[in-house]
Amino acid sequence: MVRVKFMLFATLREKYGHKEVTVECDGTLRDAVLRAAELLGPEFVSEVYENGEVRRDRIILVNGRHVQFLSSDRLEDGAVVSVFPPIAGG
Q1: DSSP type of residue 77
Q2: N or C end of the chain, less CB within 10 A?
Q3: With contact defined as beta carbons under 8 Å apart, do 9 and 82 qualify?
Q4: Bridge partners, 20 (sequence order)
């Protein structure tokens, strides 16, 4: 099993009542998100995925790198996944 820490920012901290959660998963981003949803609630999955794909309207970083620039969804033990809500303003 791989340990992964999720860091939640801005309104997501308020929505889920946590700054961070740590989960054990099979080493994929998808399983890590599903495990985090067991702690945060099933709606957490939709913060990261939409129609089975990683959302493009969120900033999701794995160890400081945006997920769209990663070649794989594999996570190493101790990985940190940072999830930012959509940016709004004007």
Answers
A1: T
A2: C
A3: yes
A4: 7
Select from 46, 63, 54 the least CA-distant residue to 7: 63
Q: Which two tokens stand for residue 20?
A: 């961070």
Instruction: With respect to residue 90, please indicate whether it lies within any of the assigned structural domains.
Output: no
The span from the CA of 79 to the CA of 90, in Å, is: 34
In a domain, 56, yes or no: yes
Separation of alpha carbons 63 and 77, rounded Å: 11
* Domain total of the chain: 1
Residue 84 to residue 10: CA distance in whole angstroms = 7
Contact 32, 75 (CB under 8 A): yes
1-45 confidence digits (pLDDT tens)? 999 999 999 999 999 999 999 999 999 999 999 999 999 999 999
